[in-house]
Specification:
- The protein is α+β, with helices and mostly antiparallel strands and 371 residues long.
- The protein is built from twelve helices and 18 strands.
- The protein has helices at residues 12-23, 57-76, 92-102, 115-121, 143-156, 200-205, 232-235, 239-242, 247-257, 259-263, 296-309, 351-367; strands at 2-8, 28-31, 47-48, 82-89, 111-114, 131-140, 160-162, 169-171, 174-176, 181-189, 209-218, 229-230, 269-272, 278-281, 285-286, 317-327, 332-335, 341-346.
- Strands 3, 4, 5, 6, 11, 12, 13, 14, 15 and 16 form a ten-stranded mixed β-sheet that branches. Strands 1, 2, 7, 8, 9, 10, 17 and 18 form an eight-stranded mixed β-sheet that branches.
- β17 (332-335) and β18 form a beta hairpin.
- The two termini are 29 Å apart.
């Protein structure tokens, strides 16, 4: 079997590359070791986040990816459940961070709100509110539905998928699997947090480890959440805020008031699905072999952050899960371990937010600019 492009991995990064490849008129195959995508791409918030991403390339890729999501969602039957973002500030130091963010280029079209303005628009905000920031740039899909829908739509566009087909070796243009040999002029490897099956020396060179996170689904609170919500803890994790000089004072205060939250890497994102249930998270624990055990003490910290940010008690938990993703100091990397092969890995948990922009760059690199 011979193709113009073979993509290893059917997570969002692999699917993004399949989309850009088929848009270039190429014959594309996707090889996926699992029976379906079950990794980080369906275990996240489905939140395509622009505001707060790291300055420069990550922010630019997020803006481009958001535009592509908005274009393909109606075509592929993916429902956009929420638009925009509210970042709440419970502390004056947090409001200072938001004001500084809004004053720079990445704050374009974002609006800093007083506490009264936040409460007049969003009646669900919790205690000790100092203000907030509204961003119009974000959109949110339900990952567990969006990823299979994207696979189905790409199939209809002519992309060929082979599930339960792990790739054991690549010697370009040949790709070895237990089922068949595949040939491709260009090979794009998108392995997610599989750090050892292909090109482990490249992962070692980029100091890649894994990040594990705790996620929750809560029952419907009986009210609509018009936009996803973040809060003070988010500002010390998202680089667009955390790299501002004003964030130092916020982090110092959080270290005094919420040291356990910071130690567990807890920050708050709350989104809402079509049935009213809330997706809430998350945490960050790092290591090459994270333990597979769900820690209810971490859950308690996440729900504490929920109570601080929202003016409701947490509804009952109806689902819990762990996710893992590849993590490294940089947000992503693209390597060329052999001619006509690109290894593309998002190492910051921003795959849903940046993958389409990254995929365009990959094909510009390997094939030249598509004019």
């Amino acid at each position: 079997m011979s193709y113009d492009v073979a993509i290893v991995g059917a997570g969002i990064v692999g699917l993004a590359h399949a989309l850009i490849a088929v848009r270039r008129g190429l014959k594309v195959v996707v090889l996926e070791r699992g029976a379906a995508p079950t990794g980080a791409s369906i275990r996240n918030f489905g939140f395509i986040t622009v505001t707060g991403q790291g300055a420069g390339d990550t922010w630019r890729r997020a803006r481009r990816s958001r535009d592509i999501w908005a274009e393909i969602a109606p075509k592929s039957g993916i429902e956009v459940l929420q638009n925009g973002l509210l970042v709440t500030a419970q502390r004056p130091e947090a409001l200072s961070v938001l004001e500084a963010f809004a004053a720079q280029d990445m704050g374009l079209e974002c609006q800093v709100l007083s506490a009264a303005q936040v409460r007049s628009t969003f009646d669900f905000i919790g205690r000790d509110l100092c203000g907030g920031l509204f961003s119009p740039h974000e959109l949110r899909v339900q990952s567990r539905h969006a990823i299979p829908a994207l696979v189905s739509w790409l199939l209809a566009q002519g992309v060929e998928f082979h599930f339960e087909t792990p790739v054991t070796e690549i010697a370009a243009p040949d790709i070895c699997t237990p089922r068949a040999k595949v040939k491709a002029a260009v090979i794009i490897v998108c392995p997610g947090d599989d750090l050892n099956s292909l090109y482990p020396h490249v992962f070692d060179a980029h100091s890649v480890t894994r990040c594990q996170l705790h996620m929750l689904r809560l029952a419907s609170p009986g009210r609509r959440l018009p936009v996803p919500v973040m809060s003070d803890l988010s500002m010390v994790r998202y680089k667009g805020y955390a790299e501002l000089p004003e964030s130092a004072a916020l982090k110092q205060r959080l270290m005094q008031e919420q040291p356990d939250h910071l130690a567990a890497g807890v920050h708050l994102i709350v989104t809402q699905d079509a049935d009213g249930s809330l997706i809430v998270g998350d945490s960050h624990h790092y290591g090459r072999a994270p333990e597979p055990f769900y820690d209810t003490q971490v859950e308690a910290l996440i729900l504490d952050a929920f109570c601080e940010a929202l003016n409701i008690q947490p509804p009952p938990v109806i689902e819990r899960w762990l996710g893992t993703y590849a993590s490294a100091p940089n947000d992503m990397f693209m390597a060329s371990p052999e001619p006509n092969v690109r290894l593309v890995v998002v190492t910051s948990g921003t795959g849903a937010s940046t993958a389409f922009g990254i995929a365009e760059e990959t094909f510009n690199d390997v094939l030249g600019t598509d004019d």
